[in-house]
Amino acid sequence: MKYRRLGRTGLKVSEISLGSWLTYGNSTERNTAVSTIDAAYDLGINSFDTANVYARGEAEKIVGEALRKYPRESYILATKVFGQMGEGPNDKGLSRKHVFEQLHASLNRLGLDYVDIYYCHRFDPETPVDETLRTIDDMVRQGKVLYVGVSEWTAQQIQSALGTADKYLLDRLVVNQPNYSMFQRYIEKEIIPLGEQNGISQIVFSPLAQGVLTGKYKRGAELPEGSRAADAKSNMFMDKLLQDDVLLKVEQLEKISRELEISISQLALAWILRQPNVASALIGASKPEQVKENVKAVDVSLSSDVIEKIETILA
């Protein structure tokens, strides 16, 4: 495994991280989830990601239980706050009340005294940014949060948060978690340049485009049994990806991966890691074999000619 610094901090995260969205507590059986986390740890992955809303807290319980047998200093654990966790008017968002209560609920489910990274899972237009950042800053000062991050915020929202933190001398953002893959590249225009200028790394989710960049989905073929697209709970995000024009590009990318004697998933992850501002690519594995396959991407270096061929296909 290889490691990169997280933003302007001294923290080093593995270039491949393991997440629990749509898997642990949902479609993946508990023992399989634990064995997948164990495999990731054994392969040198030190960065693990979850969120309070993943299966309404069940993912946090599984991740916390699986990691509890390892020395706390040996891994980095991130969780998030924003999503709906109850039926009340204050059971969602980034208000002081919701952030405060949900951090403590997450720590209880995880069985930990602190989390390494705490993300604002989405932007909350109904709560002043200074209210949210001051609340998390309080948690940092209490030792319950080490680093502050956001997920899927716009460049303007991130810039506003940086200005607010500087104005009130609050802990600064050091990491952003956006959607980034060969088929989702919006961060290249503004988010990455902003991150480079302000010491904010990207830990990107869906680097394999919901599994489309594994090559398992074929034009005109039935959805593979047991796949994410075949799961009614998980496939709500995949309609735009399972189109013939996208799958044709995947076929063309597979030709490149065969020429390089690597898998298409390794090609896709290596393409992600070509970005210096990306600290880690966050994979979602439902079995140990998938982790073992994906971590090999850290040893793949893509030449400028290969990058050019990829760009031609994606264009």
From TrEMBL:
Q: Where does the record place the NADP-dependent oxidoreductase domain?
A: 15-313
Protein name in the entry: Voltage-dependent potassium channel beta subunit
* Keyword tags: Ion channel, Ion transport, NADP, Oxidoreductase, Transport
A GO biological process of this protein is: monoatomic ion transmembrane transport
Taxonomic source organism: Peribacillus deserti
Q: Does the keyword Zinc apply?
A: no
Q: Which family does it belong to?
A: Belongs to the shaker potassium channel beta subunit family.
